């Protein structure tokens, strides 16, 4: 894939790394990452859509190729600051209106951005996320409200251990086999994507990561749900422990006209566990529900050579 890297400058001067794939202009998908995810996590979705749609995403402040803000207070990493970054990304890439797709943390970022700029939304796809305060619902365990914040206190001190553990995690199957055994990921997980993500994640700035996580944990956009007036699709995994299925069901019940897909056997990582199911369902949603200023999103355009080969196969 020809991923074009760039940057945007946010309202407080933070430099945000951007990624652009697909044809210039025209209908656009804007992808909001999960916490700890980057453009790699969207590999299957980008491959599926980038021949007919422009796809834009970015790294959250302080993570991967984006810089840390000069202000190191927790407020500098709050969800509204990520919305400032998104505003800068859209301006840099000249995106006026788009379908916004959020995964995990990206769900909260997009709900907050909808509060600010509903006019920019042609549609909304929310994957494996919640509207707010994930420590209150993760693992369906009340103790997470106490343990979660304490874990964030010690996480930066574990950074050297994280870095040293990279060979074990990314060059052996032991860690992913354990994650599958515990039900944290599905047996269908794309391990190539997982290892690429893990390699980058283990070398993050964990001071910034913890600050981003705190901003996420303090955020609640429940009041936004009833105000949404654009086509919405919500996708969740049946076995998602981090954002349990009932959170998605509640969002569906409060967003007028929202569509719902539960992926049997899916966990928090459905886009890299069941990519074909996720991508085809999003494609159907775009074809049937989304209007980009009068232009509807069609199916991918095959080259003449590909069409001839397809016809020959079906004889």
Structural class: alpha/beta
CATH superfamily: Alpha/Beta hydrolase fold, catalytic domain
Can you tell me the CATH architecture?
A: 3-Layer(aba) Sandwich
Q: What's the tally of helices?
A: 13
Radius of gyration: 19 Å
Strand order of the largest sheet: 1-2-4-3-5-6-7-8
Based on CA inertia axes, which overall geometry fits? globular
Order of helices and strands: EEEHEHEHEHHHHHHEHEHHH
Number of strands: 8
> Span between N and C termini?
32 Å
Q: So what's the CATH class?
A: Alpha Beta
> Strand fraction band?
5-15%
Helix amount: 40-55%
User: How would you state the average pLDDT, rounded?
Assistant: 90
Structural summary, described in words:
The protein is of the alpha/beta class and 315 residues long. It has one domain: Rossmann fold, CATH 3.40.50. It is built from 13 helices and 8 strands. An 8-stranded mixed sheet has the order 1-2-4-3-5-6-7-8, sandwiched between helices. Strand 5 (98-103), helix 3 (105-116) and strand 6 (121-127) form a beta-alpha-beta unit. Helix 1 (43-49) crosses helix 12 (275-289) and helix 2 (79-92) crosses helix 3. The chain is globular. The two termini are 32 Å apart. Residues 301-315 have low confidence and may be disordered.
Strand-helix topology:
Layout: E1 4-9, E2 15-21, E3 28-32, H1 43-49, E4 54-58, H2 79-92, E5 98-103, H3 105-116, E6 121-127, H4 144-154, H5 159-164, H6 166-171, H7 174-181, H8 191-201, H9 206-217, E7 232-237, H10 245-254, E8 259-263, H11 270-273, H12 275-289, H13 304-314
Parallel strand pairs: 3-4, 3-5, 5-6, 6-7, 7-8
Antiparallel strand pairs: 1-2, 2-4
Helix pairs in contact: 1-12, 2-3
């Amino acid at each position: 894939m020809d991923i074009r890297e760039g940057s945007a400058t946010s309202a407080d001067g933070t430099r945000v790394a951007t990624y652009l794939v697909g044809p210039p202009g025209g209908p656009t998908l804007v992808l909001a990452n999960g916490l700890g995810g980057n453009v790699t996590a969207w590999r299957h979705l980008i491959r599926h859509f980038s021949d007919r749609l422009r796809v834009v995403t970015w790294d959250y402040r302080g993570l991967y190729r984006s810089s840390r803000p000069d202000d190191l207070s927790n407020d500098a990493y709050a969800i509204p600051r990520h919305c400032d970054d998104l505003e800068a990304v859209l301006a840099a890439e000249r995106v006026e209106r788009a379908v916004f797709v959020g995964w995990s943390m990206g769900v909260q970022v997009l709900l907050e951005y909808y509060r600010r700029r509903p006019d920019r939304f042609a549609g909304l796809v929310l994957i494996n996320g919640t509207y707010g305060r994930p420590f209150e619902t993760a693992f369906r365990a009340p103790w997470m409200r106490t343990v979660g914040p304490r874990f964030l206190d010690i996480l930066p001190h574990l950074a050297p251990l994280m870095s040293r553990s990279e060979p074990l995690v990314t060059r052996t199957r032991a860690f992913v086999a354990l994650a599958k055994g515990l039900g944290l990921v599905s047996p269908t997980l794309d391990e190539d994507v997982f290892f690429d993500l893990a390699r980058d994640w283990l070398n993050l700035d964990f001071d910034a990561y913890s600050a981003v996580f705190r901003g996420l944990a303090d955020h609640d956009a429940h009041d936004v749900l009833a105000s949404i007036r654009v086509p919405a699709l919500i996708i969740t995994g049946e076995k998602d422990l981090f954002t349990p299925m009932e959170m998605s069901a509640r969002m569906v019940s409060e967003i007028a006209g929202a569509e719902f897909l539960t992926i049997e056997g899916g966990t928090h990582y459905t886009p890299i566990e069941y990519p074909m199911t996720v991508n085809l369902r999003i494609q159907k949603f775009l074809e049937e529900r989304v209007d980009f200023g009068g232009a509807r999103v069609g199916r991918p355009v095959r080259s003449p050579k590909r069409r001839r080969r397809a016809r020959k196969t079906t004889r």
